[in-house]
Automatic annotation (TrEMBL):
Pfam families: BTB. Residues 1-29 are annotated as: Disordered. Residues 71-140 form the BTB domain. Coiled coil: none annotated. This is BTB domain-containing protein. InterPro entries: BTB/POZ_dom, SKP1/BTB/POZ_sf. Gene3D superfamilies: Potassium Channel Kv1.1, Chain A.
Amino acid sequence: MGHSLGRVDGPVLKTPTKPISHFDATPTPPNTIERIYSNYRSEPEMPQTPQQNIGDSSAKIFAELLSGPMLEIVVGSEERHWHLHQNLLVHHTRFFDESYTVNGERKRIQEGKLELRDEDPTAFELLVKWMYQGKIDDVSWMPKDVKWDYAFTCQKLYLLCERIGLQELQNQAIDQFRRGCHEAGLVPGPEEMKPIYERTRPSSPFRRLISRIAARQIMDPASEKDASSYKDCFALSPDFAVDVINAIKVGTGGSLFDDPTEGNSCRYHEHEDGETCHKTVKFKDIS
């Protein structure tokens, strides 16, 4: 998919530079591999993220996580292959547990292999880095000409995390996305916005973010974009249209329009040009 970028703009968003703290009700990771599996399998069928950063794990636990079977993962249409420690993957999310199914669906992992052909390999690279190191790169340290590309990769990372259930990394991904847009002076165009509404839940914070970006572009008098620029997005998702309109209402402070039932009626007449009735009706004086 090509990048249909928004125009170069002034500061759009203000992103804090320090990590954002978050609440995670997931219990502290267990101490042994057997407890990792038994605890995950006894919990409700909802992917969870461990509270402890992998970089803060003891040497003993980290060594246990890097033991055991390897999982082959095939990513993207170009079929890039990874062989990763399955114990470590399951430590982060049940998605990589061979026994885990959702709503009775067939097992995703078969014979030690998982296919994620509709995911982006560059986003998966960031996932691997985070799983083994507990962090991803900060866009602020990158040259300006690559900030947008990294931001867009973080958008795809967010979608990957939405799928596999990694809330903590989702939050880091959206932070890097916002910061990258801000520092590059660019915002996503309609084509980049479509996947957000195709692959996220209605309550997703990323939906709220991009609908506000679109609303700001539409309302910016210096922007060439108007509502028709997002026609395909509106057609794809009525929710996108609703979110953008609500964002405009909030962003304009709820300003009330002039009453359309008052004032110049020619605005609502059909004319060959303009908004003025050129012909006036003359009444004969019968007095």
